[in-house]
Design goal:
Four copies of one chain form a homotetramer.
Chain A lengths: L4 E6 L14 H19 L2 H6 L2 E12 L8 E11 L3 E10 L2 E14 L10 H7 L11
Antiparallel strand pairs in A: 1-3, 2-5, 3-4, 4-5
Chain lengths: 141, 141, 141, 141
């Protein structure tokens, strides 16, 4: 069973709102940094994917917010690939802080040709590269 | 049947990414401006809600991205209340540009006491105020 | 004597920080929207400049913050060109709200070739286009 | 002679613009993370300053941009206190990447009473705490 890829980041002052907590929109940005780290682990970096002629765009996102996180909190961000389709893939994201679950997300990205921005099938190198962080069983809850 | 509340905003240079399109995380921010406009239409402004002792926090979001929008595009943002629960409510959001559907979202906000940040029932004035933009039939697709 | 070009924008919830005021970094973004509006007034839009093969990059910025602006405040943003050099130009920016001066900035942008990103002289069409909003006397205070 | 306090951060995808480089407004945000790290080193964290009844607001900023930084670049951010006045202080910031100077800034913050937001003199504990990263000679170039 695959383990999620985990990295951490600190919540910045500018990301916190009048309620004193990280504003919701920043979580899509935080989860995007997890994709960057996944691409680094799997392919040596996002640029390497671009150099092979493909890029990805977000098609769908589902987010749940459980508890607020605050300025200077260190978020632990975990990502796991839960589905590899023909031209798209799904990831599950968790943001935690000090042992508490802060937020979760499921994202669906579509792979596109870098020039035409048209949907393109996932190449084998892409499937193989993220295999260590792929657990298609995890999609079912 | 209620009509959605509509306002427009221009996509800023800083909101566009390497792909030349508005980055996905900004849409949660754009839809949040629709909440601000809804609160202005319903209660004279967000501050008036705070002054009555309640605030709201985002609990859930579902987003679908259909087409990219670009720098300097004028987005038309529409919001409709689709469900009023005991302590939470749902809104449906559409972002369009030049007649094309760009993105959609469903948001669930929870009403909280402004001091304790604990869940609190929707007061009558809040239900009454947003009634003109509430269509609970719209929740069903 | 040239008049500054003025437009307005509303401060968004996500732009306000723990102190309840628009966070300082957003002002560079606000003033950038003034550049977008200036380019629209002068050339029909930023894209038209790109289509003519040039782009601009920020080389220097000086900002002074006088008073805080708050969520949902309507900022009045004024921009005036104060210097046209060989390859760069300066603009002066003011952000006001309800008759009060909130912040000021002086920006120096460098014109670059869109492909090579090397400095390039300001073409005549660029000088002519912004002439109505250019007051080189204004540079001296 | 004091050494600057240094930390690093990676440039996020969402922070890069159509030109493929980190957008200028984000640098004020990056330099603000240096203030957070300085406060952590000097006082154990920004919250500790708040707990002692003071806060700070940015009054002036001067930025110079030398070279672009790109998505996924690791920025090295250095901060040095260059002046301690009665109610305000100045910091100098450098952002570098792979041995190249990317941008510099000088910031002037004003210390304020946390409740009234009125200017307040720098307390001795604040002067003492940042002393290891203070070099008032450095202000003179």
């Amino acid at each position: 069973m695959a383990e999620p890829l985990v990295h951490t980041l600190r919540i910045r002052y500018a990301e916190c709102d009048l309620q004193g907590v990280a504003f919701n929109a920043h979580y899509l940005n935080y989860f995007d940094t997890s994709m960057t780290e996944l691409w680094r682990a799997a392919y040596g970096g996002y640029q390497n994917m671009l150099d092979r002629g493909v890029d990805m765009v977000l098609a769908e996102a589902r987010l749940r917010f459980y508890r607020p996180a605050r300025f200077d909190d260190e978020l632990e961000l975990a990502v796991l690939v839960t589905h590899l389709g023909r031209t798209s893939f799904r990831t599950r994201h968790r943001a935690g802080c000090a042992g508490e679950l802060i937020a979760e997300a499921e994202l669906r990205h579509v792979l596109v040709d870098r020039q035409t921005v048209a949907k393109t099938p996932l190449p084998d190198w892409l499937r193989d590269g993220i295999e260590p962080w792929t657990d298609t069983e995890a999609a079912q809850d």
